[in-house]
Specification:
By secondary structure, the chain is of the alpha+beta class. 15% of the residues lie in helices and 38% in strands. Strand 12 and strand 13 form a beta hairpin.
């Protein structure tokens, strides 16, 4: 006994008679079982005249399963016969772009058995079939490029840590088929858990039809980030201490490492440059240091402090230093060099 699922075999769009046109055989006993299972009696169906069955040469399917009614011109069918044909499952529908076929000769034999099992004289029902075969195709919907790009953009704008108005998304590309079976289409976007949504971004869009995943597209694009950053209002030299008049704020593209840029004047004013900076060039945080409190050769007061004792001596800085840092200082009275912590621009504290 052959199950209804065996009605089709997958075949390419250019079938060979030997391999790809399915010979359809369903035994008479199976038809009886199917009829009783579906709740239709021979008397009930025979009560309404069935004069002809017209079979389509090309059938477009919208669902995942093919029903016998899909193969027929249903307008001339009595209602009870429509209901029966709609319940008979012939098997899995083809995927988009891969047709399936039923030989007309085999389908005629199957329909004769079906009519006989329902108490009709098959010879009295006119069967109009295609000359060679019935072609089964899957109804498809093509996803427009604009729709794919919008999904890509929307996901980035919703998930990136940056303000949407600071981002520019360009160069969106993808590969793969964009045809989907007909039905209710939904999608899910998958990204790398470590995705930063800046620079080159790759996402995978999974498309579902009626709740079942049918297609996945890998989509890539580039995200450019623009921010208001602090730039030099005039050429600045290494070791210059940045003042309020030395800088201004401009909107620039910050690349893939936006954290290196100073976004506020308060982040740079009073700090020392570690390299020369040209006009309108951004001031980078890793190229700024605290201002020098002392320069090499400066005269300072050395404080020697112990519990209950505080004395001072005149000294000379032997190297540049910033507030709180330790430098070498020459005690000009003893002519000895002592490590000292910078307290302010004229004072250091000797470290025991």
């Amino acid at each position: 006994m052959i199950e209804p699922e065996q009605v089709f075999e997958v075949s390419c769009t250019m079938p060979s008679m030997k391999n790809n046109i399915l010979t359809l055989f369903i035994s008479l006993s199976l038809l009886h079982v199917m009829g009783s299972t579906l709740g239709f009696s021979r008397i009930c169906l025979a009560s309404e005249a069935l004069r002809e069955l017209q079979v389509r040469e090309e059938v477009w399917i919208e669902s995942d399963r093919v029903k016998l009614l899909d193969l027929l011109h249903a307008d001339s069918l009595p209602e009870e016969w429509k209901n029966l044909m709609a319940e008979i499952d012939l098997g899995q529908a083809p995927t988009v772009g891969n047709d399936k076929f039923i030989a007309s000769r085999s389908l005629r034999s199957y329909l004769d058995q079906l009519l006989t099992s329902r108490g009709l004289d098959a010879s009295r029902v006119e069967l109009a079939l295609p000359l060679d075969q019935v072609t089964i195709k899957r109804q498809a919907k093509q996803i427009a490029r604009g729709e794919i790009e919008e999904i890509f953009r929307s996901h980035i704008l919703s998930n990136a840590p940056w303000r949407p108005e600071d981002m520019e998304i360009q160069g969106i590309t993808y590969s793969g088929l964009t045809d989907l079976p007909a039905g209710k289409i939904s999608h899910f976007v998958e990204s790398n858990p470590k995705e930063r949504y800046i620079g080159n971004v790759i996402l995978t869009i999974h498309f579902h039809v009626d709740g079942t995943k049918k297609r996945s597209l890998r989509v890539a694009g580039k995200v450019q980030l623009y921010q208001e950053v602090v730039v030099a209002a005039r050429p600045l030299s290494r070791n210059d201490t940045v003042g309020e008049n030395d800088i201004q704020v401009q909107r620039v593209q910050v690349g893939e490492n936006p954290d290196r840029f100073a976004l506020s004047p308060t982040q740079v004013i009073g700090r020392r440059l570690l390299r020369d900076t040209g006009l309108y060039q951004p001031l980078l945080l890793n190229e700024l240091d605290a201002p020098l409190a002392l320069k090499k050769g400066a005269t300072v007061t050395i404080l020697y402090e112990q519990p209950g004792l505080r004395i001072s001596a005149r000294g000379q800085a032997r190297e540049d230093g910033r507030m709180g840092k330790t430098i070498r200082v020459l005690n000009m009275q003893t002519n000895r060099t002592v490590p000292s912590e910078i307290v302010d621009e004229g004072t250091v504290r000797a470290i025991p």
